[in-house]
Amino acid sequence: MEIGLTTPRDPIRIVQKKESICLVQPKTGIDVSKSMYEFSNEFLTSLSDVDGFILKSRSPSCGVKDVKIYPSEEKGGGSSKGKGFFAAVAQEKFPYLAIEDEGRLKDFKIREHFLTKIFILSEFREINKRKSLKELVDFHSRNKLLFMAYSQKYLKILGNVLGNNDKKSKEEVFKLYEEGLQGLLARSPRYTSNINVLMKAMGFFSDKLSHNEKGFILDTIEKYRTGNIPFSVPLYVIKSNVVRFNEERLLDQSFFNPYPQELVEMRDSGKLVH
Predict the structure, then answer these.
(1) Which one of 24, 40, 71, 139 has the minimum C-beta count within 10 Å?
(2) Does residue 8 have a cis peptide bond before it, meaning omega lies within 30 degrees of 0?
(3) Taken in order 164, 166, 171, 176, is the CA torsion positive or negative?
(4) Residue range of the domain that includes 186
């Protein structure tokens, strides 16, 4: 409706025309590429306080990755894959935000990264508004293990920004921290990084464990390494011991709860994952 099509409307598709990608309605021959681009630009420019988008899977306007691009307006023929028009503009305008389609979010790893990114960016955005260095230091401390799992390189960069040895202004510190945070959250953690953080957390209370308890935890982590159990299992085992021994340095770490438990789903593609 926003781009001038009637409701209900006939299907639209993305078509490759020489060097250009066009959004057309095959039945009528209407090309809505310009209208869709202008609407997307205007709508996205009007937004404020946005942390991410959930878009429609495989939609010629909103699909994030698996949108069919046809060689012509006619039926049949092969197709390639690409982005929907709106999704492409959203990713161009907000390259560091969490942007996914609802189909890809059925994959647990993708969904976990998406939700983690949403809540981290949202919390930082609110702190950034207040420009409170104390809140920023607290934010960094609570997320230290999570950031370590994402990227030790960027964790070090963020730590150096907070150290502020160059005596930069508060505004510059927040700007540099935001840039580092965007780089850190660009991809999901590797399983090897998760294991490193699990082992580091275990180090806080390992001297309080019996030989059998330590062996059980290490065996659980090994089963995760070999792909026999999901990450949630060793994570829960470590977390339970953090609570058991009241390890205050770890109790508030977001690594154990990166997003609200209400958003945790029991099943993912038929497999128990959480």
Answers:
(1) 71
(2) yes
(3) negative
(4) 107-274
161-205 pLDDT tens trace: 999 988 999 999 999 999 999 999 999 999 999 999 999 999 999
Structural domain contains residue 115 = yes
Q: What is the pTM of this model?
A: 0.88
Residue 75 belongs to some domain of the structure: yes
Q: Please report, for residues 97, 115, 247, the alpha-carbon distance to residue 215 in angstroms, rounded to integers and kept in the order given.
A: 40, 32, 20
Neighbouring C-beta atoms of residue 149, cutoff 10 Å: 25
Helix residue ranges, H only, 131-185: 133-142, 144-150, 152-163, 170-184
* 40-45 contact pairs (CB < 8 A, 24+): 40/85, 40/86, 40/89, 40/90, 41/89, 41/93, 43/2, 44/89, 44/90, 44/93, 44/94, 45/93
Indicate the DSSP class of residue 60: T
Would you put residue 77 in left (φ > 0), alpha (ψ -120 to 50) or beta? left
Rounded Cα–Cα distance for residues 124 and 203 (Å): 29
149 lies in the same domain as 53 = no
Within the chain, where are the H helices?
A: 33-45, 85-93, 108-130, 133-142, 144-150, 152-163, 170-184, 191-202, 211-225, 232-244, 248-251
The terminus-to-terminus CA distance of the chain in angstroms comes to 40
Same domain, yes or no: 137 and 59: no
Q: Which residues are within 8 A (CB) of 105 and not within 5 positions of it... i.e. 6 or more apart?
A: 54, 111, 114
Q: What are phi and psi of 27, to 5 degrees?
A: -65, -40
The reply to whether 153 and 72 lie within a common domain is no
pLDDT, one tens digit per residue, over 224-242 is 999 999 999 999 999 999 9
